[in-house]
Design brief:
Length: about 450
């Protein structure tokens, strides 16, 4: 007769027991090293029927005490596939650079202190309102109005308050624009901060690795909706959900930069389908330009709050504060002082008129004047104003054309020695051979480039 080695017999005996109920031991200790029949392992009140429902280890037992017994919690154990944690199999399908704290986005745009208080307050009120009617908010506005700065600031506030579920910051120039990476990225970020969901997600991937190759719609259902719905159901012993019912915010910024109009529309439709599941503890903040197809779908296909970032009186006041603080910072950096009459009231007013409430333009102007390479902000300010005053296109209703002029002025400052290299770099970006032959230039791509 063949007998198992001692270690093998011990392992065989251990496998006869169901250790799932042991997870509750740590929450029901009567004294150090002591566990009583009030533990989830035992039926309440010694009821044999309740014990039959629990099953497994100490089945149908009651009125017992376990003392000085080592206990181990396996609730956060990770499944392993081919020698690597299962969650690692998800990582190649994600876009880590799109996260709120990604090093690829340093320095990220965010609201200057004391600015954008109205829109930040509106988002905060909506998020904390128990009587809200919509689970999504669409923040929209033209280029340069500060949508990404607001999204970044709100996301960072949520990180500090432990209520950020996930964030995806699209960027076409930086390659963060693939729709197929959105759901895996959100799932991965949620899994890193929510252990119960991490366990559920790793099991889903281990059971069917092909789920990572499914369409975004299927992935949203299989990787997020179904596991969170299951986690929100009540546990048989505690009658409480495994996941606390606090709300988490998911931020999608720059939706209009997602590759493909159809993909943008599908993401909005998916969010609406997601929001129809009542038990899911998530709200969505979506930021984009008001492109016609997005205006249409947000008005017809999704229930959401809307807030437009326009260039109004309040925006211009915020931009003025940003510029004043920016010039103060330049003074302290180059002159070692703050205050005084630099720039003069006349020069500062001209900068305000040129900026016209556009934060992106104000940021570019401050960067040009305070460029540490030249170490002469006073002369840089005079050169910039002189250039703008003599530019034929300064009289325009579109402030972004002023930004084009600023970039033209920046190019004029490039040394003749390095200008040939600069031109070759720009030509490569515009006429890249592989890109030209394998992808077609659409009118949208050309418009964005220009």
């Amino acid at each position: 007769m063949c007998t198992l080695p001692r270690a093998g017999r011990l392992f065989q005996a251990i496998m006869l027991f169901d250790f799932t109920p042991l997870q509750g031991y740590f929450r029901h200790r009567s004294a150090p090293g002591e566990y009583t029949d009030r533990s989830p392992l035992a039926p309440s009140g010694g009821n044999a029927q309740a014990g039959a429902l629990s099953g497994g280890f100490l089945h149908q037992s009651s009125h017992f005490i376990v003392k000085n017994s080592p206990m181990y919690d396996f609730s956060n154990a990770q499944l392993v596939m081919h020698g690597h944690p299962t969650l690692d199999r998800l990582l190649p399908y994600t876009c880590p650079e799109a996260a709120v704290d990604s090093s690829a986005r340093i320095p990220p745009p965010k609201c200057h202190p004391g600015t954008r208080e109205k829109v930040k307050g509106k988002i905060s009120t909506w998020f904390h309102d128990p009587d809200r009617t919509a689970k999504a908010m669409w923040l929209y506005g033209p280029a340069g109005t500060g949508k990404s700065a607001v999204a970044q600031t709100i996301a960072e506030i949520c990180v500090d308050q432990d209520c950020l579920g996930a964030a995806f910051f699209f960027s076409r120039p930086n390659g963060r624009n693939k729709a197929e990476t959105v759901v895996p990225t959100i799932a991965y970020q949620l899994a890193t901060s929510l252990p119960p969901y991490r366990s559920a997600l790793t099991k889903i991937i281990a059971d069917d690795i092909t789920v990572l190759e499914k369409t975004p719609r299927v992935q949203l259902k299989k990787l997020i909706i179904e596991p969170f719905s299951a986690l929100q159901r009540k546990r048989p012993f505690t009658r409480r959900p495994l996941l606390a019912r606090k709300l988490l915010l998911i931020v999608l910024d720059g939706l209009d930069e997602c590759e493909g109009l159809d993909a943008q529309l599908e993401l909005v439709e998916m969010i609406e389908e997601f929001n129809r599941v009542a038990s899911l503890p998530f709200l969505w903040l979506i930021c984009s330009r008001p492109d016609p197809h997005l205006m249409y779908i947000f008005s017809r296909s999704i229930e959401c709050n809307r807030h437009q970032l326009s260039i109004d009186t309040e925006t211009r006041k915020d931009a003025e504060k940003y510029l004043r603080d920016g010039f103060t910072s330049i003074q302290q950096k180059f002159f070692g002082t703050s205050g005084g009459d630099w720039p003069s009231p006349d020069h500062f007013q001209k900068i305000l008129d040129i900026t016209d409430g556009l934060f992106v333009l104000g940021h570019a102007i401050l960067g040009y004047i305070g460029n540490p390479t030249f170490q002469n902000p006073t002369q840089r300010l005079l050169d910039f104003l002189a250039f703008m005053e003599h530019a034929d296109r300064i009289a325009t209703d579109n402030p972004l054309e002023t930004l084009d002029l600023l970039y033209s002025r920046i190019l004029m400052d490039i040394s003749p020695v390095v200008m040939p290299t600069t031109r070759r770099i720009l030509q490569h970006c515009l006429y890249d051979i592989d890109y030209y032959f394998y992808k077609k230039f659409s009118s949208q791509v050309l418009a964005n480039f220009l």
